[in-house]
Amino acid sequence: NAGVMQNPRHLVRRRGQEARLRCSPMKGHSHVYWYRQLPEEGLKFMVYLQKENIIDESGMPKERFSAEFPKEGPSILRIQQVVRGDSAAYFCASSPGTGNEQFFGPGTRLTVL
Amino acid sequence: QQPVQSPQAVILREGEDAVINCSSSKALYSVHWYRQKHGEAPVFLMILLKGGEQKGHDKISASFNEKKQQSSLYLTASQLSYSGTYFCGTPSGRSNTGKLIFGQGTTLQVKP
Description:
The structure holds 2 protein chains of 2 kinds. Chain A is mostly beta strands. Helix content of chain A is 0%, strand content 50%. Chain A is globular and about 35 Å long. In chain B, strands 2, 4, 5, 9, 10 and 11 form a 6-stranded mixed β-sheet that branches. A 5-stranded antiparallel β-sheet of chain B has the order 1-3-8-7-6, with no helix packed on it. Chain B is globular, with a radius of gyration of 13 Å.
C-alpha cells in the first residue's frame, strides 16, 4: 500500500515564477492537508481539503497561494509569483477521516532564487 | 494557539530515559505525536483521544491529562534511532476540522 506521494521532491524557481506542488494521498484517504515548514522551524498548517472542497484554508496566505483537490487526480498547491520567503519544505498529509492520524508525504523542498 | 513543548532540546546516552511535554493554554481535545528526522517527513507515533488515555509501543508511550491540558511522551531505554525532532499536534477546536496546530518541536539526540 503506497504511502502519500508528493512531487516534485525538489523544486527550484526564480522570483516571479509559479510553483506547482502535487500530492497523491494514501489509498482510501479522502482528506488532504498541506503544511509548510521553514528551516529549523515547526510545521504550520496551510489548508485542509476533501475531494472538490476546501474545508479550511485559514493558514494559507490570501494572495498568490491556492489549493485544489479535484475529483480525479492529485491535490495541487499552487504558488504564483514566488518570492524568496516562499522557500520552505511543503508537506502534504492525508487521513481517512477527520480526527484520524495524518500520514505525511516526503515533502517538496522549494527553493526560490 | 500553538501548544508549547518542553524541553526544547535534550541529549541522552543510549539506554537513558526522556520525557517530552506538550501543554496548551486552551482546552486539548486530542494530541498527536510525530517524530521527524532531519530532511525527512514527520512520522506518526500515536494519537491520544481521551483524557486519561495512555498508549505505548516499543518503549515509547504517551499520556494525556485533559484537565491539565497537557500530554507527555515517554521514551524509555532510548536507542540511537530515537534521535530526531518530536512534535505534538492538537486540533484547533472541539469541532475538529482536521487542522492540526503543532508545537515548536523538541530535538532529541541520543549518543552511543
